[in-house]
Amino acid sequence: MKKLILSDDTLNRESTELQISEVIEAAIDSIRDYCTDRSVTIEYNSPEKEFLVLTNQDKLTDVLKKLLFISVKFNERNDKIIIEQNVLLGRRHNDNNDFIHILIRVCSMALSNYLLEVKLDSSRSSGDSRNLDYKEKLAIELSSSKAMVKELGGNFWVKRLPDNGMTFNLTIPSVKLVEE
Which residue range(s) make up the domain with 62? Predict the structure, then answer.
């Protein structure tokens, strides 16, 4: 018999159990025309084993859309974006769940170079963004993504790749099934 284990802080009225691949595919579909206009390809292969998460679907979709939009906007023509997912085991003493790790790999140095000058700061707010330069706007967008992922019980970070490009990394608590 399988039993569903969920932590109390993960549960709330807005959370639903959903397949992570459906959320990723919805985010990709929402920016497909923008990708075509900019000649950027998004590569995503759904895994054979489906990953389930218990989260707010609208917030997670918004974060993924925002990160994909940023990835395409600052990408060079004919580059590609690769999306991967895997399971990270909950390792801390207070982790009741494992996590789904989503990586958005941008195979371009353009965005990576912009990010060198951007600091993620959760205290940034969008306010009046008309007078901000692109680096400040990017910092606000990434900071708000980080805050939303935190609200969903996960983590967000950006990693520059030594060879080419960078990755947006986010984790979302998974639904954990255990054998009894």
Answer: 2-179
Specify the DSSP class assigned to residue 122.
T
Position 51: which residue type? F
Q: What are phi and psi of 118, to 5 degrees?
A: -110, 135
Domain harbouring 15, CATH code: 3.30.565.10
What does the pLDDT look like over 12-37, one tens digit per residue?
446 778 889 999 999 999 999 999 99
Extract the runs of DSSP E, i.e. beta strands, from the chain: 2-5, 16-19, 41-44, 52-55, 80-88, 99-106, 156-160, 166-173, 176-179
Cβ neighbour number for residue 55 with a 10 Å cutoff: 28
> Of 87, 68, 83, 59, which is closest to residue 150 (Cα–Cα)?
59
- Mean pLDDT in residue range 68-92: 82
